[in-house]
Amino acid sequence: MSYVAIKGGKAAIDGAAAAAEFLRGHDNSGEPLKLSAIESQLRLLTSRVVSEGGLYHPRLAALAIKQFQGDTLEAAFALRAYRSTKPRLLATPLQDSTNMRCIRRISAAFKDIPGGQMIGPSYDYALRLLRLDLADEDPEAFQSVARTFLTELPEADLPDSFPKVLDALRAEGLLPPVTESRGEPFDITREPLLFPVPRSAALATMARAETGSLLAMAYSNMRGYGDVHPTVAELRVGYIPVMVPHPVTGEPMEAGEVLVTECEVVAMYESGKAASLPTFTLGYGACFGHNEVKAISMAILDRALQKGMQDGPANPSEDPEFVLLHVDGVDSMGFASHYKMPHYVTFQSDMDRLRTTQVKAREAEQSPQREV
Amino acid sequence: MNIHYEFPLEEVGYSFGFLDEYAKKEVRRTILKAICIPGYQTPYASREMPMGRGFGTGGLQLTLALIGPDDTLKVIDQGSDDSVNAVNLRQFVQLTCPGVGVTEKLEEATLIQSRHRIPEVALTEAQVLVLQVPYPDPLVVVESSEARRKIMHAEADYSRLLVKLYEDIVHFDEITISHRYPTRINRHYVIDPSPIPRWDVPKLDQSPALILLGAGREKKIYAVPPYSVAEPLVFDDVPFRVEDFRDEHGQRRACARCGAINSFLDEYSDDNNAKIYQCSDSAYCDGQLAQHQQREVKG
Amino acid sequence: MSNVQNPMASHGLWLPPMQQQIFRDLLHVFSYPGRVAECTAESMTWLALLASLTDGEVSLADPHGLITADIWPKLEARPTTPDTATFILADGGRAMDFQPCTGSLESPETGATILLRVAALGEDSAGGFQLNLSGPGIQGHTELAVSGLHPSWLIARAGLVAAFPLGVDLLLCDEHRFAALPRTTRIETGEII
Fold first, then answer.
1. Kind and range of the H or E element at A237?
2. Do strands B210-215 and B128-132 pair parallel, antiparallel, or not at all (unpaired)?
3. What's the complex ipTM?
4. Number of domains in chain B
5. Fewer CB within 10 A of the terminal residue: chain B, N end or C end?
6. Residue C144 β-bridge partners
């Protein structure tokens, strides 16, 4: 009689790793990917990974993309795991996104906005026609692209920062006034989500959520499982200087800058609290990197969740527990993958139950009707 | 960004136990509270580990918070030390915890991390068992909101769970829960004992060893303290039954490899589609086999 | 006492290896209430225990002023009053004079851990109580001898743990040893020894 060898697990995982590594190296070009190439030429992929990884380190993100052969879920996951090994030395104070060095800034609410619309790098109006010339790109032509762009760039007199579109609406009384700080923001890397959670916990969870999951939830609201009906008051992409207190003097100093996408949506108005006038409602989205769909989805969901927190959820996208516990890429992909692991013991147990139940059912069929 | 940027060396090195010390302290504090409130799913800020959620990250965080250079670790998955996931976890601990011993022999281990099984041989006071948990809350089948489940647990209100079991009996004349059998600890909280078979549930009761359960994705830690009452949820007239390994003639099936007739068996088919049964606990199977061989040599 | 000659042991309590070792002893005493563990660090037991448990995430109350100003920053804990603290350090020789947090039904883990300094635990507890213990972690019954514990603590504790899962968890320590009394432990006060 044969039996399954109870050895061999180590050889199997070593072999699996070698086979995956073979496929990475099996490239006729013979050129390994350069991290700098991933970081700049695949900048939107890198953006997605820093955002979902919750760690602003584009070079490590590029490494993760290379290592996991372009799988964004795995790459973001590797960044998160790396982050687990680092102590949290400091919590930054509130950062002001008005100080953003914008590369792009638009508003769908107004034709013109103070500071001006600035379309910047975008494919929004590009025709989705495949550019076959890129299939065989001449290195020299490629190198001249950036050079030409910079030399031909008109001398623009751009300010260092732009006013927020929302500030104008607020000044006019169409938006609720900014309330004073609501205390320490919730740190999702330190505290488990126990519902109800504050808005800051929801925002932090969405900021590092998986883009596709967030989009699906927000889309359900846009299509009719909800009624946010947003207007994009402002979408901006750019670099925010990160200010931290100086370790000795305590004075704010710039520690560096992070590329951030920020979206503010204005939604249908609601009656004001305590005899004040009705105002528009707001939704806010922001994440690391250049990820416009993610920031918009987040802003819509923020509005939907605020409504759900206030009036009780009427749709899945308004239910904080439903949304926040199902949008994390690391959690959801890990669990989906774990079903590939052996489940012999539980399946054995399942078969035992089914067989016992079948025996009982057969017995019941053969014996006269009995009362239940 | 600077094209010539190189990673500083410290960015690629990991400290003992992988997790930073603050993360370990938080897990440790949570473990102590979990022991003080037997069966209560104590929340903690589960960290991301370098393996998938669902692959034992909760168990691994417990192990890494516990482990020290004096420990000897045994890792099993489906009862086997050499299952791919067990190998992977063990290699990770060896990589990140230099000096820690590893073993496949149960009696040599001080820490045992396991998925889906409790070893056949009884544990001792000198051992701690860490179980990996995918779904920590037995109430999730009757109540999807965690906020409401927490209140039901606090009040030890398991009436809806009992109704579910009762409906099973009405439909099938049998409780159909095969594994993850809801078990009441210290006469208050009902736990999901992780996907161990019913065979292993009685081992939770009055165990000399501490049993810790970690759910990384759901961010919960709970404990069955040593010498605690652990009772599977049942009705007086429908007894709790472990898996039945008798053949059609009522004969207890034996392990095809070591001949044991007192262990949980894995069932599978050979190339001729014939059913084969073999111990799920591979270290136990090895031990039985060694004893037979010794006897043969002596005989 | 071990490690008397070990120069590392006194400041080792701030280092990860010592904290791991102390945690494992804590794990043992909480798992088996009434058992007494030796403190391996060459320092005050209460300090070694706190050092292995606290950081910036927790609050700590010191109603009897046992922690000196130079120690506070090393513990990193936020100082607070006993009614809200996660950890409370108190002098068990004095009558209990505060109301600790016992947690909520939904979150009983927020019930405080009270670290009580007593004169002696175990064998050298002459003049103290013999506590008769039962509950999870104890096979049948066990006994723990304590001296230098004001009786008000046991009376107050009985009230605080009466409505499980609410309660407080006690950690008793003398100069060299410590033992735990989780909220699940039933205590009968035996004779004076």
1. strand A231-245
2. parallel
3. 0.94
4. 2
5. C
6. C131
B interface test, pick of A74, A344, A345 with most B CB neighbours within 10 Å: A345
Contacts of B32 in chain C (CB under 8 A): 26-27, 30, 113, 169
pLDDT digits (tens, 9 = 90+) for A329-355: 999 998 899 888 888 888 888 988 898
CATH topology of domain C8-192: Rossmann fold (3.40.50)
Based on the fold, state whether residues B97 and B32 are members of the same structural domain. Answer: yes
Query: Do B68 and B97 fall into the same domain?
Result: yes
Among residues of chain A, what percentage have pLDDT more than 70? 95
- Whether B36 is a known active-site residue: answer no
Q: In what order do the strands lie in the sheet with B230-232?
A: B190-191, B183-185, B230-232
DSSP state of A241: E
- Which chain B residue's Cα is nearest to C29? B32
The Cα A177–Cα A198 span in angstroms is 19
Same domain, B78 and B215: yes
Q: Count contacts between B and C (CB, < 8 Å).
A: 107
The reply to whether B194 and B67 lie within a common domain is yes
Domain endpoint, select from B197, B230, B263: B230
Length of chain B: 299
Contact B224, B39 (CB under 8 A): yes
| Any B CB within 8 A of C3 CB | no
Q: Are residues B97 and B37 in the same domain?
A: yes
Neighbours of A4 (CB within 10 A): 16
Q: Assess contact for C11 and C120: CB atoms under 8 A.
A: no
Confidence at residue C54, expressed as pLDDT on a 0 to 100 scale:
97
Average pLDDT over residues A39-55: 97
Q: What is the average pLDDT value for chain B, to the nearest integer?
A: 91
pLDDT one-digit tens code per residue, A189-203: 888 888 889 999 999
pLDDT at residue B5, as a whole number: 46
Q: What is the DSSP letter of B246?
A: B
- Model confidence at C1: pLDDT above 80: no
* φ/ψ of residue C90, rounded to 5: -140, 160
